[in-house]
Protein backbone atom coordinates (compact mmCIF):
# COMPACT_ATOMS: atom_id res chain seq x y z
CA UNK A 1 0.00 0.00 0.00
CA UNK A 2 1.31 3.43 -0.94
CA UNK A 3 1.39 5.72 2.08
CA UNK A 4 0.05 9.30 2.18
CA UNK A 5 2.05 12.16 3.72
CA UNK A 6 0.83 15.71 4.33
CA UNK A 7 3.16 18.71 4.29
CA UNK A 8 2.07 21.86 6.10
CA UNK A 9 4.48 24.54 4.90
CA UNK A 10 5.12 27.58 2.73
CA UNK A 11 5.46 27.84 -1.03
CA UNK A 12 8.70 28.43 -2.94
CA UNK A 13 7.95 29.49 -6.53
CA UNK A 14 11.48 28.56 -7.61
CA UNK A 15 10.72 24.94 -6.72
CA UNK A 16 13.76 24.22 -4.58
CA UNK A 17 12.38 24.49 -1.05
CA UNK A 18 9.07 24.59 0.81
CA UNK A 19 6.01 22.72 -0.37
CA UNK A 20 7.51 22.16 -3.80
CA UNK A 21 10.60 20.44 -2.37
CA UNK A 22 8.44 18.45 0.04
CA UNK A 23 6.26 17.04 -2.72
CA UNK A 24 9.32 16.12 -4.79
CA UNK A 25 10.94 14.40 -1.82
CA UNK A 26 7.75 12.50 -1.02
CA UNK A 27 7.49 11.24 -4.58
CA UNK A 28 11.17 10.33 -4.76
CA UNK A 29 10.82 8.35 -1.51
CA UNK A 30 7.80 6.40 -2.70
CA UNK A 31 4.86 8.03 -0.91
CA UNK A 32 1.89 10.10 -2.08
CA UNK A 33 2.34 13.76 -1.16
CA UNK A 34 -0.29 16.29 -0.10
CA UNK A 35 0.11 19.94 0.85
CA UNK A 36 -1.55 22.57 3.05
CA UNK A 37 -0.05 26.00 2.45
CA UNK A 38 0.80 28.31 5.34
CA UNK A 39 2.39 31.16 3.38
CA UNK A 40 3.31 32.36 -0.07
CA UNK A 41 6.80 33.65 -0.73
CA UNK A 42 8.49 35.55 -3.51
CA UNK A 43 11.90 33.94 -3.78
CA UNK A 44 14.47 32.42 -6.07
CA UNK A 45 17.89 30.85 -5.62
CA UNK A 46 19.33 34.22 -4.57
CA UNK A 47 16.94 34.91 -1.70
CA UNK A 48 13.49 35.77 -0.39
CA UNK A 49 12.03 39.17 -1.30
CA UNK A 50 8.52 38.88 0.18
CA UNK A 51 6.45 36.66 2.49
CA UNK A 52 2.64 36.59 2.58
CA UNK A 53 1.22 34.45 5.44
CA UNK A 54 -2.19 32.96 4.75
CA UNK A 55 -5.12 33.51 7.15
CA UNK A 56 -4.94 30.92 9.98
CA UNK A 57 -8.55 29.83 9.43
CA UNK A 58 -7.75 29.05 5.79
CA UNK A 59 -4.71 27.01 6.82
CA UNK A 60 -6.98 25.04 9.17
CA UNK A 61 -9.59 24.60 6.42
CA UNK A 62 -6.98 22.96 4.18
CA UNK A 63 -5.84 20.57 6.91
CA UNK A 64 -9.37 19.61 7.89
CA UNK A 65 -10.33 19.00 4.26
CA UNK A 66 -7.48 16.51 3.90
CA UNK A 67 -8.25 14.62 7.12
CA UNK A 68 -11.98 14.53 6.31
CA UNK A 69 -11.36 12.51 3.17
CA UNK A 70 -7.87 11.00 3.02
CA UNK A 71 -5.89 8.65 5.28
CA UNK A 72 -2.83 10.53 6.52
CA UNK A 73 0.11 8.30 7.45
CA UNK A 74 2.54 11.07 8.48
CA UNK A 75 2.74 14.84 8.65
CA UNK A 76 5.67 17.17 7.95
CA UNK A 77 5.48 20.73 9.27
CA UNK A 78 7.76 23.33 7.74
CA UNK A 79 7.40 27.11 7.52
CA UNK A 80 4.85 28.39 10.04
CA UNK A 81 5.41 32.16 9.57
CA UNK A 82 3.63 33.51 12.66
CA UNK A 83 2.17 32.68 16.07
CA UNK A 84 -1.44 32.59 14.92
CA UNK A 85 -0.67 29.99 12.28
CA UNK A 86 1.35 27.92 14.77
CA UNK A 87 -1.61 27.79 17.14
CA UNK A 88 -4.06 27.05 14.36
CA UNK A 89 -1.96 24.15 13.05
CA UNK A 90 -1.62 22.72 16.57
CA UNK A 91 -5.39 22.90 17.09
CA UNK A 92 -6.07 21.28 13.70
CA UNK A 93 -3.73 18.36 14.42
CA UNK A 94 -4.82 17.84 18.05
CA UNK A 95 -7.62 15.35 17.22
CA UNK A 96 -5.29 13.11 15.21
CA UNK A 97 -3.23 11.23 17.77
CA UNK A 98 -0.71 8.58 16.81
CA UNK A 99 0.31 9.97 13.42
CA UNK A 100 4.08 10.58 13.10
CA UNK A 101 4.86 14.29 12.85
CA UNK A 102 8.18 15.69 11.64
CA UNK A 103 8.82 19.37 12.35
CA UNK A 104 11.45 21.31 10.45
CA UNK A 105 11.53 24.65 12.33
CA UNK A 106 12.10 26.86 9.30
CA UNK A 107 13.31 30.24 10.56
CA UNK A 108 15.92 31.64 8.18
CA UNK A 109 16.25 31.20 4.42
CA UNK A 110 19.57 30.30 2.80
CA UNK A 111 20.05 33.94 1.82
CA UNK A 112 19.49 35.14 5.40
CA UNK A 113 15.86 36.31 5.20
CA UNK A 114 13.72 35.69 8.31
CA UNK A 115 10.90 33.20 7.65
CA UNK A 116 9.50 33.17 11.18
CA UNK A 117 8.55 36.35 13.04
CA UNK A 118 10.11 36.61 16.49
CA UNK A 119 6.88 36.36 18.47
CA UNK A 120 6.12 33.02 16.80
CA UNK A 121 9.03 31.23 18.46
CA UNK A 122 7.14 30.90 21.76
CA UNK A 123 4.08 29.53 19.96
CA UNK A 124 6.24 27.10 18.01
CA UNK A 125 7.97 25.80 21.13
CA UNK A 126 4.89 25.58 23.35
CA UNK A 127 2.23 24.45 20.86
CA UNK A 128 3.99 22.47 18.12
CA UNK A 129 7.21 21.02 19.50
CA UNK A 130 5.37 18.71 21.93
CA UNK A 131 3.59 17.14 18.93
CA UNK A 132 6.82 16.20 17.15
CA UNK A 133 7.92 12.63 16.61
CA UNK A 134 11.12 14.09 15.13
CA UNK A 135 12.30 17.71 15.30
CA UNK A 136 15.02 18.60 12.75
CA UNK A 137 16.70 21.96 13.54
CA UNK A 138 20.01 23.07 12.09
CA UNK A 139 22.51 24.73 14.41
CA UNK A 140 21.06 28.22 13.94
CA UNK A 141 17.52 27.01 14.55
CA UNK A 142 18.46 24.94 17.60
CA UNK A 143 20.14 27.98 19.14
CA UNK A 144 17.13 30.21 18.40
CA UNK A 145 14.68 27.74 19.92
CA UNK A 146 16.77 27.52 23.08
CA UNK A 147 17.71 31.20 23.22
CA UNK A 148 21.44 30.41 23.36
CA UNK A 149 24.50 30.74 21.15
CA UNK A 150 25.07 28.56 18.11
CA UNK A 151 26.87 25.28 18.78
CA UNK A 152 30.45 25.21 17.52
CA UNK A 153 31.36 21.62 18.47
CA UNK A 154 29.84 18.17 18.87
CA UNK A 155 29.57 18.37 22.65
CA UNK A 156 27.41 21.48 22.46
CA UNK A 157 25.34 19.99 19.63
CA UNK A 158 24.59 16.94 21.77
CA UNK A 159 23.71 19.08 24.79
CA UNK A 160 21.34 21.22 22.74
CA UNK A 161 19.68 18.15 21.21
CA UNK A 162 18.97 16.80 24.71
CA UNK A 163 17.69 20.18 25.89
CA UNK A 164 15.36 20.45 22.91
CA UNK A 165 14.03 16.95 23.51
CA UNK A 166 13.16 18.01 27.06
CA UNK A 167 10.81 20.58 25.50
CA UNK A 168 8.50 17.87 24.19
CA UNK A 169 9.64 16.24 20.93
CA UNK A 170 10.16 12.48 21.15
CA UNK A 171 13.30 12.69 19.00
CA UNK A 172 15.49 15.64 18.04
CA UNK A 173 17.91 15.62 15.11
CA UNK A 174 20.37 18.51 15.35
CA UNK A 175 22.04 18.93 11.97
CA UNK A 176 25.71 19.88 11.94
CA UNK A 177 25.99 21.19 8.40
CA UNK A 178 27.07 24.61 9.66
CA UNK A 179 30.06 23.21 11.56
CA UNK A 180 33.42 23.88 9.97
CA UNK A 181 35.69 21.18 8.62
CA UNK A 182 35.38 18.27 6.20
CA UNK A 183 32.73 16.41 8.23
CA UNK A 184 29.00 17.15 8.51
CA UNK A 185 27.77 15.21 11.56
CA UNK A 186 24.18 15.09 12.81
CA UNK A 187 23.10 13.94 16.28
CA UNK A 188 19.77 12.33 17.13
CA UNK A 189 18.56 12.58 20.72
CA UNK A 190 16.19 9.70 21.53
CA UNK A 191 14.48 8.40 24.67
CA UNK A 192 17.37 5.93 24.91
CA UNK A 193 20.27 8.32 24.38
CA UNK A 194 22.23 9.78 21.46
CA UNK A 195 22.96 8.46 17.99
CA UNK A 196 25.44 10.10 15.63
CA UNK A 197 25.16 10.10 11.84
CA UNK A 198 28.46 10.81 10.14
CA UNK A 199 28.86 12.21 6.63
CA UNK A 200 31.54 13.81 4.51
CA UNK A 201 30.83 17.40 3.58
CA UNK A 202 29.92 17.80 -0.10
CA UNK A 203 31.35 21.01 -1.52
CA UNK A 204 28.56 22.54 -3.59
CA UNK A 205 26.48 25.70 -3.88
CA UNK A 206 23.39 23.60 -4.56
CA UNK A 207 21.97 23.43 -1.05
CA UNK A 208 18.63 25.21 -1.46
CA UNK A 209 15.92 23.14 0.22
CA UNK A 210 18.18 20.63 1.98
CA UNK A 211 16.37 21.00 5.32
CA UNK A 212 12.93 20.75 3.72
CA UNK A 213 13.94 17.72 1.71
CA UNK A 214 15.56 15.87 4.62
CA UNK A 215 12.59 16.35 6.94
CA UNK A 216 10.18 15.30 4.19
CA UNK A 217 12.21 12.18 3.48
CA UNK A 218 12.16 11.33 7.20
CA UNK A 219 8.37 11.76 7.24
CA UNK A 220 8.08 9.51 4.20
CA UNK A 221 10.11 6.76 5.87
CA UNK A 222 8.10 7.03 9.10
CA UNK A 223 4.90 6.74 7.07
CA UNK A 224 6.24 3.52 5.54
CA UNK A 225 6.79 2.07 9.00
CA UNK A 226 10.45 2.78 9.72
CA UNK A 227 11.57 3.66 13.23
CA UNK A 228 13.02 7.14 13.78
CA UNK A 229 16.69 6.09 13.61
CA UNK A 230 16.13 4.01 10.46
CA UNK A 231 14.09 6.85 8.95
CA UNK A 232 16.86 9.38 9.60
CA UNK A 233 19.51 7.06 8.15
CA UNK A 234 17.50 6.39 4.98
CA UNK A 235 16.61 10.06 4.56
CA UNK A 236 20.23 11.13 4.93
CA UNK A 237 21.27 8.65 2.26
CA UNK A 238 18.63 10.02 -0.09
CA UNK A 239 19.66 13.62 0.55
CA UNK A 240 23.38 12.89 0.15
CA UNK A 241 22.70 11.60 -3.35
CA UNK A 242 20.40 14.53 -4.13
CA UNK A 243 23.14 17.00 -3.12
CA UNK A 244 25.95 15.09 -4.85
CA UNK A 245 24.05 14.99 -8.16
CA UNK A 246 22.65 18.53 -7.93
CA UNK A 247 25.27 19.73 -10.42
CA UNK A 248 23.27 18.02 -13.17
CA UNK A 249 20.65 20.75 -12.75
CA UNK A 250 21.00 24.29 -14.05
CA UNK A 251 18.63 26.34 -11.91
CA UNK A 252 19.40 29.94 -10.96
CA UNK A 253 22.58 31.80 -10.09
CA UNK A 254 22.52 31.51 -6.28
CA UNK A 255 21.99 28.53 -4.00
CA UNK A 256 20.71 25.97 -6.48
CA UNK A 257 18.27 23.19 -5.57
CA UNK A 258 19.16 19.60 -4.81
CA UNK A 259 18.32 16.89 -7.33
CA UNK A 260 15.36 15.11 -5.74
CA UNK A 261 14.94 12.64 -8.60
CA UNK A 262 18.60 11.68 -8.98
CA UNK A 263 17.85 7.97 -8.58
CA UNK A 264 14.83 7.90 -10.88
CA UNK A 265 16.39 10.01 -13.62
CA UNK A 266 19.63 8.04 -13.54
CA UNK A 267 17.67 4.81 -13.95
CA UNK A 268 15.83 6.34 -16.91
CA UNK A 269 19.02 7.69 -18.48
CA UNK A 270 17.95 11.32 -18.05
CA UNK A 271 20.79 13.82 -17.71
CA UNK A 272 23.52 11.30 -18.50
Written overview of the protein:
With 272 residues, the protein is of the alpha/beta class. It has a single domain, classed as UDP-N-acetylmuramoyl-L-alanine:D-glutamate ligase, CATH 3.40.1190. It contains nine helices and nine strands. A nine-stranded mixed beta sheet has the order 3-2-1-4-5-6-7-8-9. A hairpin with a 2-residue loop joins strand 8 (186-190) and strand 9 (193-197). The model has no long low-confidence stretch (mean pLDDT 93).
Class per helix and strand makeup: alpha/beta
Which outline best applies? globular
Strand order of the largest sheet: 3-2-1-4-5-6-7-8-9
Rg over C-alpha atoms, rounded to the nearest angstrom: 17 Å
Task: Predict the CATH topology.
Answer: UDP-N-acetylmuramoyl-L-alanine:D-glutamate ligase
Number of helices: 9
Labels describing this entry:
alpha/beta; 19% strand; globular; UDP-N-acetylmuramoyl-L-alanine:D-glutamate ligase; 38% helix; 272 residues; nine-stranded mixed beta sheet; 9 strands; single chain; 9 helices
